[in-house]
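Lab notebook page, bench 4
Experiment: in silico fold of construct C2
Operator: M.H.
Input chain length: 281 residues
Purpose: comparison with the prior construct
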Amino acid sequence: MIKKYLKTAIFIVVGAFLNAAGVCFFKMPNSFTTGGVSGLSILLNGAFGFDTVKTMTIINIALLFIGFAILGKGCGIKTIIGTLLYTVFQLVLEWIYPMSAPFTNNTLLELVFAIMLPAIGTAMMFNVDSSTGGTDIIAQIIKKFTGLDSGVALLIADVLIASLGFFVFGIELGLLSLLGLGIRSLIVDSVIENINLCKYFTIITTKPDMITKAIFASLDHSVTILDAKGAYSGADKAVLLVVCRRSEAMLLKKLVKQEDPGAFLMITNSSEIVGKGFQGT
């Protein structure tokens, strides 16, 4: 449980910081309206001169109440923490290094970082049922009632905001914002999938007991054993089914080869494992 809480805390803190860095250093100076409350606040600043940070704070607080009521207490608390950290990081970064102009004159390069940093941060926070508030909350609500992936739900929630950039900042920035929005949804899904990536081993062996004992001793994972027979040799064999985290895959492969050099292995990627020792527990 301590390990689980520590992972959650790290993901929320790092995710909030990456979001704040992307918005402060790349999104705001370039007026990219790539969705989110930050995008809406940039639009309101460009159209009416509203203070961007104050506008973001007001909208985020309103959406927090809505999210807390619909998504439940657990997710609401994590989102409140994420939103507060995001706001604090944003204020600190603006104080330490205020941005009066973009870092470079390369708009496309600026867009890459304006999308990549918040997308990675958002994916990390989604992975522990948190967010920085704003349209992330709307995305989580859409996901809850429709079953859509987080990235798709976020795209639906943000596309209108990005489209409004055409009317406020012109065609070029509007097109760049829409491009960035599409890329962001892909990155969010990709990062979430890679964070949860596991390895699924199918092991055909004549020494199931030895391999099973080695797995128990070194990895503390369970094994499912199926009886089988070789079609060509007619010899009795066993099929072992094992799942492990990506970081454990090399050790598991080494253990199998040590105990039975003649074992036949099939190793596949699994983007989600639900059960004891993995997600959902």
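Observations: The longest helix spans residues 2-30. The mean pLDDT is 83.
Next step: discuss at group meeting.
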